[in-house]
Structure formats: C-alpha cells, structure tokens
Amino acid sequence: MTWLVTGGAGYIGSHVVKALGEAGLDAVVLDDLSTGHADFVPEAVPLVTGSILDGDLVEAILRDHAVTGVIHVAGYKYAGVSVQRPLHTYEQNVTGTAVLLERLQSVGVDRLVFSSSAAVYGTPDTLLVTEDTPKAPESPYGESKLIGEWLLRDQAVAAGLRSTALRYFNVVGSGSPELYDASPHNLFPLVFDALTAGRTPRINGDDYDTPDGTCVRDYIHVSDLALAHVEAARRLDAGDTLLPAYNLGSGDGISVRQIMDAMAEVTGIPFTPEIAPRRPGDPARIVASGALATRDLSWSMRHTLHDMVSSAWSAHPRHP
C-alpha cells in the first residue's frame, strides 16, 4: 500500500512522510517546491516535482506508483496574505483539490486524509471549540479549506470517497534537526529570527482577559500532528468509518508569554518582550477540544512546551 503525500516536501508534509516510513507504510511525494525543500524528502521516497493542478501528472503518479490513498497537505497556507491574493488561494486550495479528487475517481482510489485548518471557525464565541462549533471563516484561506471539506463530503456521495479532514491551529516544533518551519509568518521562526539578529521579540497586547494577559492559542507539535495523519490513513486502510472532520486540539492552550519565557530559557538568550498594541481582531483565547480525535485517532499531546521550543530551536537554520 502506497500513500501519495501532496506537499510532502514542506514542513508539515515532510513530517507526515517521516511518520509514514516509521509506521512501515510506503509513500510518494508530489510537491511544486514553491515553499517545500527537496532535501526534506528521504532519498528512499520518490519525489515528483509538480503541481496538483496538473491532472495528467497526478493521474500518472497514482497509476505508476500503485497509490492506494492520499494524504493531501499541499496548499497555500497564509491566511493573512490570502486576503490580498484570493484568486491564487482559491486556485491552489479549491481548484487543486477538485483536480486531485477528479483523478482519484478516474483511477479508483477511494481514501483521502485532508489537511484542513481551524481557520474554518473564524473567531468562535466559545471558550472550547468542538467539531460542531459554527463555521465562519474570515479569510479566503479559511474559506478555501471549508470548501475543500465540502468537496470531500460531496465526493463521498457521488463516488464513494472515504475520507476525513483534520483541523488544527498552530503547528510548531520539529521531529528531526533537518526538518524546520521556514514560514515568514509563524511565531516560532519569527521569534528565533529576531533573537539571532539581536532584535527583541514583541507581544501584541498584554491586557487580554487571560491568566497572564496575553493571547492563548492551541500549539501542537508537528510530530504529534503527523502521527494523527498516519493513524487516519491506517484506519481508512482498515476499512473503518471516520468522522468527516476532527479537531487536533490541546484542550487548554498556551499563552504567548509562556512561549516567550520558554524561548528565553531554551535559547539561553535572555530578553524581555516588547509590548505592542493589540492587533485588530485577535481574540483573547481560541482553544479546541481534541476528544473525538483522541477516541478515534489515538490523538494526544505527546510533547511539552519545552519539547516544542527546544526541537524547533535545534532545527532552526540560524541555530548557533
């Protein structure tokens, strides 16, 4: 059994490929390398450079590698930038998913694990997000992920697709020193870049209604996330029926100040964060329940905050 990992040369996708290998499952990667890195893919895993928008290429991979299922991680993932590039975002995330599903149907592959996002919820008015929390995305990115889930739902009716979507918030850490988060928009690399450049990291607002005044979010280790994708794949291989979507949440969250304190401790670079004004629209707390994923996908938070920060720091390209 071979699983195609779209976006498998990226930060999250490469960890999924790693977890597949450790579980004894074969993989093949499709990645256009727009944000991925070819050297993130193990030498033993075939890497095809190209886009999921290229239907003929997708179908050739499915046939040539006898693919039995897909873990669909590829996509344009920058919510803020998606507001300025909505058409590009929809092309990559909606049209790309539709092309992929069309070719899966053509060759008879009926298993798919979809890397979705907690951005489908927007800014929920509940302290603990569940899978039933109303969907109200606030960016083209969040909307594109919700449409992707609708496409899976409709293909289940039309073509018997068996799938599930995994929704998550902030992914951090590293499962190997060679695999790192290179995003110019994510908190961990932004703070590490500031520290190694001699700048002081900043916190946007410290007067929220939270225990220490800073925003609280779900931060999950990328290796834990990858294991959930692999477990979902194994469950689909076994013929099990999964829910349409699962939240991969911590249930309690971590504050921005807690992260800053851990970063000072781990890096050995003492600093006092600058306090900047609140960013418009930042809610005080967004945390999800992972109870259903724990029940069905053996989901758990296997890594502590210290693990998250230390592993990310060890893999950071500018680590001294």
Describe it.
The protein starts with a strand and ends in a 5-residue tail after the last helix. Helix 1 crosses helix 7 (222-237) and helix 8 (256-267) packs across helix 10. By secondary structure, the protein is of the alpha/beta class. The chain has two domains: 2-171 and 219-247, NAD(P)-binding Rossmann-like Domain (Rossmann fold, 3-Layer(aba) Sandwich), CATH 3.40.50; 172-218 and 250-315, Alpha-Beta Complex (UDP-galactose 4-epimerase, domain 1). Helices cover 39% and strands 16% of the residues. It has ten helices and 14 strands. The longest helix has 22 residues, at 86-107. Strand 1, helix 1 (11-22) and strand 2 (26-31) form a beta-alpha-beta unit. It has helices at residues 11-22, 55-64, 79-82, 86-107, 140-159, 187-196, 222-237, 256-267, 291-297, 305-315, and strands spanning 2-6, 26-31, 47-49, 67-72, 111-115, 162-167, 170-172, 202-204, 216-217, 219-221, 245-247, 254-255, 274-276, 285-286. The chain has a seven-stranded parallel beta sheet, sandwiched between helices. It is an enzyme of class 5 (isomerase). It catalyses: UDP-alpha-D-glucose = UDP-alpha-D-galactose. Pathway: Carbohydrate metabolism; galactose metabolism.
Task: Give me the strand/helix succession.
Answer: EHEEHEHHEHEEHEEEHEEHEEHH
Distance between the termini: 41 Å
User: Can you tell me the overall shape?
Assistant: globular
Helix content: 25-40%
CATH architecture of the largest domain: 3-Layer(aba) Sandwich
Structural class: alpha/beta
Mean pLDDT: 95
The main β sheet shows up as: 7 strands, parallel
Q: Can you tell me the CATH topology of the largest domain?
A: Rossmann fold
Enzyme class: isomerase
EC number: 5.1.3.2
Family: Belongs to the NAD(P)-dependent epimerase/dehydratase family.
Keywords: Carbohydrate metabolism, Isomerase, NAD
